[in-house]
Amino acid sequence: MPIRIPDSLPATEVLEGENIFVMTEYRAMHQDIRPLKVLLLNLMPTKIVTETQIMRKLSNTPLQIEISLLQTASHAAKNVSEQHLDTFYTTFDEIKDQRFDGMIITGAPVELLDFEDVDYWDELARIMAWSATNVHSTLHICWGAQAGIYYHYGIPKYELPEKIFGVFDHEVVKPSSPLVRGFNDSFNAPHSRYTEVHAADIEANPDLELIAVSDEAGVYLAKSTDSRHFFVFGHPEYDADTLMAEYERDVAKGLDMPLPRHYFPNDDPSQAPRATWRAHAQLLYTNWLNYYVYQTTPYDLAKVGTEEDSAHE
């Protein structure tokens, strides 16, 4: 959140020069506040687990947020009851005339398929096209990040020789970005995927910028220069035991799965894993909500997507 200080305080210029958001008394007095409307497009099969993980991150801020849950109509979910979907989820046709301050698009276990071969790709493409005029800022996660950066900017994904699976160390390569404000120079984050995007492809596109990378896991954070689109190629929302559940599930299926890297103490799956990424995960969601949604979205939602709606670096 911004700090509110007197209009003429000498510290104002210094703090603004350090890229710290300062709100003067005048701006604070004239500020209108309303709840943020955030749309969560949940593509994960374990919908209840995923919605809980993400809502936990969204709820741990001072901001009031109204969440709407969205499912794809062109894909039948098999791991959640129809009653849950009917009660809590909506479809694109039901919300396409609405506008939202923010949207989150989750990952999905379809990364080995070409994008166009995913059974709900056409519907997802419609939603991503719609977001340009009806959503102020969109956060894409894991496969959702690969799909989003491919759809909006043509960045391809590449199949890996083996699954990137575990908790990896990352480096902030653009520390001036408000997205990573408060981050340590290096931090941990979980990954679980068979494909990746390349940093060189992102750096070659003038409309994109690289924010954080890992020597082992590759690109972690990127965004559009207009701050409309954010891409997180890992799973910061994961609970401490999520990778363990994925590992045990795949082993039970008879798959030859290596242990998640840097995850179990002493690489011993009999020992309970510990979350070493929770603080930075919370900062990531909080920074996105604060600097790129709350601070820049129009007070009048009808102006989202219009010329009066402008996101900021």
Automatic annotation (TrEMBL):
Q: Enzyme group, top EC level? A: transferase
Per UniProt, the keywords (alphabetical) are:
Acyltransferase, Amino-acid biosynthesis, Cytoplasm, Methionine biosynthesis, Transferase
Q: Which residues bind substrate?
A: K163, S192, R249
Q: Which Gene3D superfamilies match?
A: 3.40.50.880
Cellular location(s):
Cytoplasm
Q: Which GO terms describe its molecular function?
A: homoserine O-acetyltransferase activity; homoserine O-succinyltransferase activity
Catalysed conversion reaction: L-homoserine + acetyl-CoA = O-acetyl-L-homoserine + CoA
Q: Which InterPro entries match?
A: Class_I_gatase-like (IPR029062), HST_MetA (IPR005697), MetA_family (IPR033752)
Point out the annotated site residues (description: Important for substrate specificity). S192
Asked if the Swiss-Prot or TrEMBL record annotates the protein with the keyword Repeat, the reply is no
Which residues does UniProt mark as catalytic? C142 (acyl-thioester intermediate), H235 (proton acceptor), E237
Can you cite a GO biological process for this protein? L-methionine biosynthetic process from homoserine via O-succinyl-L-homoserine and cystathionine
Q: Which Pfam families match?
A: HTS
GO CC annotations, alphabetized: cytoplasm
Q: Which domain of life is it from?
A: Bacteria
Please name the SUPFAM superfamilies in this protein's record.
Class I glutamine amidotransferase-like (SSF52317)
Pathway participation: Amino-acid biosynthesis; L-methionine biosynthesis via de novo pathway; O-acetyl-L-homoserine from L-homoserine: step 1/1
The catalytic activity of this protein is classed by the Enzyme Commission as 2.3.1.31
Which residue positions hold the site described Important for acyl-CoA specificity?
E111
**PANTHER family assigned:** HOMOSERINE O-SUCCINYLTRANSFERASE
What the record says about family reads: Belongs to the MetA family.
Mind telling me which HAMAP family this protein's record contains?
MetA_acyltransf
Q: What does this protein do?
A: Transfers an acetyl group from acetyl-CoA to L-homoserine, forming acetyl-L-homoserine.
Its name, as the record gives it, is Homoserine O-acetyltransferase
Origin species: Eggerthella sinensis
Lineage of this protein's species?
Bacteria, Bacillati, Actinomycetota, Coriobacteriia, Eggerthellales
What gene does the UniProt entry assign to this protein?
A: metAA
